[in-house]
Structures are given as structure tokens and as C-alpha cells.
Amino acid sequence: MSREAYINAIVVAVLLAVPLWAWVADAPFIITLATRIAILALAGVGLNIALGLGGMVSLGHAVFFGIGGYAMGILASHAQDYSPLMEWPFLIEGTKSMPVIWLAALLMSGLAALLIGFLSLRTSGVYFIMITLAFGQMFFYFTVSWPAYGGEDGLPIYVRNSFPGLNTLDPIQFFLICFAVLGLALGFSAALARSPFGLALNATRQQATRVEAVGIAPFRIRLVGFVISGMITGLAGALFADLNRFVSPTMFSWQTSGEIMVFVILGGVARLFGPVVGAAIFITLEHLLGGVSDYWHIYLGALLLLVVLFARGGVIGLLSSWRKASV
Amino acid sequence: MSDPLLSVHGLSKRFGALQASNDITLDVRSGEIHALIGPNGAGKSTLIQQICGALRPDTGEVWFDGQNVTPLSVAERARMGLGRTFQISSLAMEDTVLQNAVLGALGGHGAPFRFFRPVLKDAALVARAEEALARVDMLKFADKRTADLSHGQRRQLEIAVALTLQPKLFVMDEPMAGLGASGTKDLTPILSALRHDAPILLVEHDMDAVFALADRISVLVYGKVIATGTVDEIRADAAVREAYLGEDA
Amino acid sequence: MSAILLIEQILNGLQFGVMLFLTAAGLTLVFGVMGLINLAHGSLYMVGAFAAAAVAAATGSFFLALVASLAAAAAAGAIVEVVVIRRLYNRDHLDQVLATFALILIFSEGTRWIFGSFPLFLNIPEALSGPVTLPGGIQYSLYRLVLIGIGLAVALGLFLLINKTRLGIQIRAGENDREMIAALGIDISRLYTIVFALGAALAGFAGALVGAIQSVQVGMGEPVLILAFVVIVIGGIGSIKGALVGSILVGLTDTLGGVLLPSFFKLFMDNAAATATGTALATMAIYILMALILVVKPTGLYGAST
């Protein structure tokens, strides 16, 4: 096993062991932290497909995170006040069932990614960064000004949605749901990277002219990669909304996009477990430093700056080459 | 196949004041190596780009395999069997040699939208890739990272990737570029053998290689084809000697 | 809608647009010359506003406040360029995005640390407050009118700077060919610091001028930054002319959209629904404009086509 594989195994073990310990020790707050880590890592796993595999520097992934969140918020709010979502041309009722909500989140964020990707991927490089950021802002302002689902104030959901056979109100059970979804996404992501599509996407990032010259249209490859990436981040948004039982335009904000990107980078771009490590470090720091200083973002900024300037490959990159470098 | 595999009719392309292609007409027939030569800035790259689909001509048409391909994209032309190599190696440098070749096979096969099964477990694709690598004597480096290859090995891999498409026509943009005398000597028989797979439109600066390989030569000067003919005809052509060979000598 | 209201809104849009131009100009220059995408440009806008508010509070002079905004933003820009930014020129865009995102965190929290979380207020100077009567009997804010004038004057100044001065020649050389500047014997790192500080000063100046009609608070820079990105995407990266045209287009679209769209929907909807739909759509108007321009011309109105 490579050093990176060891690190990955340790990360998974810790992410599972800590909340189980907290469950035994009756520390639900720790379980909630771990759940946050799992969900935000999932959002990062989504972005990592666009960013790491496809080289698409999207600063607008909050759009998909937010759409996933609002898919949950809208469906659940209609279910909780027993009003149909729409009656024409066909009836759609609200729901409190997680699997149905997830499906809606995947579908809607996929559609949004298709549209945004179709427009943004006509450009590349710095234009792409700016445009994805701008589309993110568009959704943000739209949700702020659209009053039907809470507008600026957001939308509370009183009871967490249900999952067949489980009690989602129990923190450890909800954590295990999120952990399982993260595991599935990681498995999918690993398979994707080795698949024919993964080979093509990865080659498109490195040398699009080559991909084109062997008969594969880079635009389509990138677009499909962007859609898959957006869908996974959208699923994370639905879970995040369920964790907080609240959705608000903040999920669409540019800071959210930036933070999802930070998870990916902090851990290590294009490394399978990069987002998991990144999210774990971010949330742990937020918890620890947030207790020490109100201004913990300064330390986060400084850390991020150091990682970018001096530790390319992120924390996993640093750890897996540490010994090699010193020996 | 009696009609030419590739034919270019009256192709013109202008960039501002520069007439990069001026009413170019030429063809490539089955089994031949047709070399395209000309001084720097003659418009060879612009012509190649238009043949491969990366640039749209202002006027004129490109016909390939009995079809007008002028409106088609690079990828569509590649899928029709147009295999090209680049003047500056364009390979996925982080990937292995085998992965680069498999990518070519994948493109030729036309099924890149498969998301689960590992591509390197696809026996048909891998076999095709390995066969192409063997043709240019690169199979022994299959697991090497492309970035770690020498310049000459990358040139060979370029050709192998084009081979994985099992193309009907090769378009090679200076395959000998930067190889030096011995590298050029090694590559010459490989290219010569390829004409039995598919004809080659060969852009090349190395005159010894061109004269050794080409069945026909077209000479491009200031965006215009000033002569087309066999090696002997071109050597004897007064206009060519004056416009081109004379400058070199 | 009355013609007077419409003219008033057009002026508002113009004012918004020229202030946006001050921010976008620096961003596009920095990208054009150094190839750097700088998310922290909005932070420099904020630094200018805070410096102005602090100096105005201490001295009571609006003029000194403006000088302070220019100086503080230019200094912050120069320091950041020397300490961090110049390490990023040869990095890929992803590294640039992350490092400048980190700078936003540091600037924002640092400012919150020094000035606290409450917004500061910067008052319009006595002499410029109040309305002025325009031809046709339109009452309009004198200060906003002055902002339009200042914005256009700065735009003119930038054109002259780029087209007529030695520095301008160097900047244009840098946009076209980096190796050429070295060949001309120009000190590149000094040129880069000057360009970055110039862009920062313009952003800080805009922050102070706009701060007087809005509030001065942490986080004020990022919405402007993102709008400036939209402007640059519309105008074409690296083009000052594109930044000016893009800014005014965005300013007018945003302001007029906010007024016209709700009235438009009132033609066939009831009042409340029309206001809601119109307002929601108006917030998206500039992004729709951006998308349309992208479809027609992916490199922006004045961008070099690739």
C-alpha cells in the first residue's frame, strides 16, 4: 500500500471512530461536527471531479450546493404545510423522504450544471473562473429577492426528513447516512477516475488539442464532467440543509464556493481523499480557533496562503512526501 | 480507390493583411506520401489546421474520403479516420505511454462516455493501443510516464497515438522536428512503412527525409502552391529552385 | 413612468457604472499586464473606504479622506504585491484564486479586528450635498453628479496615461509581450508593483467615493469585485475601453432593470406579484446580459479573439 493509501485509511477510520466514541460518551455535538465534515467533504468530492480531474476552476459550486439545499427546503416545506408544489401541468406534492429529496437535488443541480456549464465552458481559464463566480452570485441575489421560500431570511424546516428504516433524528444514525453517502461518492469518484470517461477528462485537462485530435470533443467531456461534479455537490447541499433543518441564500454565496474550493485544496487537488482531509481540517480549525478568537479567519487565511505558496499538493501531498524528502 | 482520399479545392484564408492560404488545391492519393514543403511563414501550419478542422477557410473546400468535411469539427474529422501528429508533441504528460495510446484507441472506438469499468481492463482497447505502440517500438515503455520520455520517444508516441485511430489518412506536422540526424534516420523507415496503412500528408523541413520518403511533393510559398510533382520534377523545377531551394543552398 | 424619473435612473446607472469602472480598470490592467486574477481587489476597495472614513472622522475633511483612501489602498496594494502577489505570477490560476481568497479572509477579518463589526459612516461634504437642478427642471443629487464627472475624468486620465506616457508604453508592451519589456531594459518587478498599486489606488478611491453614499463595512468589496468580473467578462479581459463600456452597460442594466422590470410586469400581473417577479428578474438582469454576450462573443466585446 502506498503512503497515501495509509493516510486515506487512517482518515476514514478516524472520521468513523470519533463520532462512534462520541455516541458512547454521549457527546452529540461532536457527532454533529463529524456529520458536517462528512457532508462538506461530499461537496468537495463533487468539486474535485471538475477541479482535480477536469481542471475546471469553478468558483461557482455554491450554486449546486444551494440548489440541493433548496430542493430539500422546498419539497419539505410543502410537505410540512400540506400544500402541493405545483398542480399544473401535473401535480407535484412535497415530500419528507430523503431518497426522493436526494433524487430531486441530483436532478435539479445537474440541470443547473448543464446550463451553467454550457455557457461557461465556451470560455476557459480566467474567464471561466469569473463567469462561474458571477453565475453563483446571480443565484444568490435571486434567492434573496424571491420571497416565496423565505427570501433573505431563509426557510426553516421543523423536523428532519425521514429515511426508510432509520431514525434520522438520532445524530449517530444521521451521521451514518451521511458517512455512507460520502463513501459511495468516494467509490464512484475512484471508479470514474479510472474509467474511459475519467481518462478522457483527465487528458482534456492536460492537453485538449490531443483529445480533439483522436476524435473526442473536449467540450462534451468537460460538460459531462461538470454536470457530474455539480450533482454530487448538489446532493451534499440537500444533506447540509437537512443537518441544519434550514436553508438560506448563504448556501449560494461566493464564500461558500470559496470554502468548498478550500476543502479541496487544503487536502490536495485531484487526490481522492483530499476533500475529506480538507473538510476535516477546516471544521476542526473552525471549532478550535473559533473558540479562541472571533477572528479565526485570519489564521485560516494565513494557513491557506502558506499551503498555496509552499505546500503544493495540499496536506496529503505534504504527508505522503514528507519522509521521502527528508531521507 | 481511384479518387484521391483527401482533396483540397481553392482553399483561401486571410488574417488581416496576411494572405496565409491563397487558392490552394492539392490532393493525397492512396498509398502515397505527399510531402508539403515551403519556407517558414509559407502557410504550412495554417493549411494543416484547415485540413484538420481547427481553422475554417474563408473560401474553398476540403474533401476527405468522398465527403465534403469543410463544416466538420476536428473531432468529427478524426472519427472519420484523419490521424494527425503535432509539430510540438501534444500528449497527456502526466499519463503513462499506455494511457496516451489507450486514449487514442478510445477516441477511435468512439465510446468515451463510460463511467465505471476501468479503461485499462478493456482488453480490446488495450490490445489496439499495444499494437500501435509495438509498431513504433514503444511497447517496452508502456508504463513509463510520458513526461519522463526523451524528445525522440515522444515523437514516436505521437505517431503511435495517431496509429491507434487506424486512420485512413495521416497528417503529420514535422514529425522529425528536433530529432537530429540520427533520430531522423531512425524514424524514416517507420514512416515509410506507414504508407501501407494509410497515405501520409507530410509537412517536413528536413529535405533529406523528404526526398527519401515522398512520392510527390507540393511546394508552398506565400500561401500559394507553386509546384506539385515527383521528387525529380521538384528538384528540376526552376521556380522552386529560385523561390525556395535556392535560398537554402 | 415619467421621463424625469427615467432620466434620474439613467444618471444613477451612469454613476454606478463609472464607479464600477474605477474598480474594474485596476482588475483588468493587472490581468492584462501580469496575467493575474486577483480576488482581493475588492479588499483594496474596502481598505480605501475605511481609510477615508477614519481620516474623515479624525480631521473632518472629505478631501483629506479621499487622499487617505488613495494612499492607503496604494500602499496596501504595493505591500501585498511585494509580499505575496509576485510569487503568484508564474503560478496557475487556481493558485492565484486560492492565495487571493486567503488574502480576502485576512483583510476582512483584520479590518473587523481594527474597526469592529459595525458599519462606519462617511458623510458627503457640505458643499456637495443636496440636489441640483438640471436643465428640464430635474432635481438630482449634486454628489452623484460629481461622481459621474470624477469617474469620466479618471477614465480620460487613464486613457492618456496608457496612450501618452512612458509608463503607458511599458504597460502596453507588457500586455503584448512580456519578453519585450525585459528587452527594453525595463525593471519588470518595479513596473508590476506600480501597476498593482495603481489599480489598488483606483479601487480604494472608488470605495471612498461610494462609501459616502452607502455604508462603510467589512464585506463591502466582494459584491463590487464580482460585478467588476462581470464587467471584464463583458468588455474583454485586459481592455480598458472594454472595462468602461462594460461598466456603463452593467450600471445601466442593473439600475434600469430594477425600475423598469417591475413596471413591465405590472402591465399584465397584479401589483405584488409583478413587484416580486420584476425585482427577482432584475437582480439577474446583468448576469443574463453577460450570458448573452458570451454566447455571441466568448472573449468579450473588446477581447482579443483566440
UniProtKB/TrEMBL annotation, chain A:
Keywords: Cell membrane, Membrane, Transmembrane, Transmembrane helix
Gene Ontology cellular-component terms listed: plasma membrane
Transmembrane segments: 5-23, 29-50, 62-80, 100-119, 126-149, 172-193, 214-240, 260-285, 297-319
Organism from which the protein derives: Halocynthiibacter halioticoli
Membrane topology (UniProt): Multi-pass membrane protein
GO molecular function: branched-chain amino acid transmembrane transporter activity
Keyword Repeat: no
Matching InterPro entries: ABC_transp_permease (IPR001851), LivM-like (IPR043428)
Taxonomic path: Bacteria, Pseudomonadati, Pseudomonadota, Alphaproteobacteria, Rhodobacterales
Keyword Transmembrane helix: yes
Principal cellular location given in the protein's record: membrane
Pfam families membership: BPD_transp_2
Name of the protein in question: Branched-chain amino acid ABC transporter permease
Coiled coil, from the record: none
Subcellular location field: Cell membrane
From TrEMBL, chain B:
Coiled-coil annotated spans: none
UniProt keyword list: ATP-binding, Nucleotide-binding, Transport
Ranges where the ABC transporter domain occurs: 6-247
Single annotated GO MF: ATP hydrolysis activity
PROSITE patterns from the UniProt entry: ABC_TRANSPORTER_2
InterPro entries xref list: AAA+_ATPase, ABC_AA/LPS_Transport, ABC_transporter-like_ATP-bd, BCA_ABC_TP_C, P-loop_NTPase
Protein name: ABC transporter ATP-binding protein
Entry keyword annotation includes Lipoprotein: no
Listed SMART domains: AAA
Pfam families named in the record: ABC_tran (PF00005), BCA_ABC_TP_C (PF12399)
Matches recorded under PANTHER family: ABC TRANSPORTER ATP-BINDING PROTEIN, CONSERVED COMPONENT OF ABC TRANSPORTER FOR NATURAL AMINO ACIDS-RELATED
Any one GO CC term of the record: plasma membrane
UniProtKB/TrEMBL annotation, chain C:
InterPro entries per record: ABC_transp_permease (IPR001851), BCAA_transport_permease (IPR052157)
Residues that span the membrane, as ranges: 16-37, 44-64, 70-89, 101-122, 142-162, 191-213, 225-252, 273-296
Membrane topology label: Multi-pass membrane protein
Family: Belongs to the binding-protein-dependent transport system permease family. LivHM subfamily.
Organism classification: Bacteria, Pseudomonadati, Pseudomonadota, Alphaproteobacteria, Rhodobacterales
Compartment list: Cell membrane
Biological processes per GO annotation: amino acid transport
Main location: membrane
Name the UniProt record assigns to this protein: Branched-chain amino acid ABC transporter permease
Gene Ontology molecular function terms on file: transmembrane transporter activity
CDD domains the UniProt entry points to: TM_PBP1_LivH_like
Pfam family of the protein (one): BPD_transp_2
Taxonomic superkingdom: Bacteria
The keyword Transmembrane is assigned to this record: yes
Entry GO terms, CC: plasma membrane
Keyword annotations: Amino-acid transport, Cell membrane, Membrane, Transmembrane, Transmembrane helix, Transport
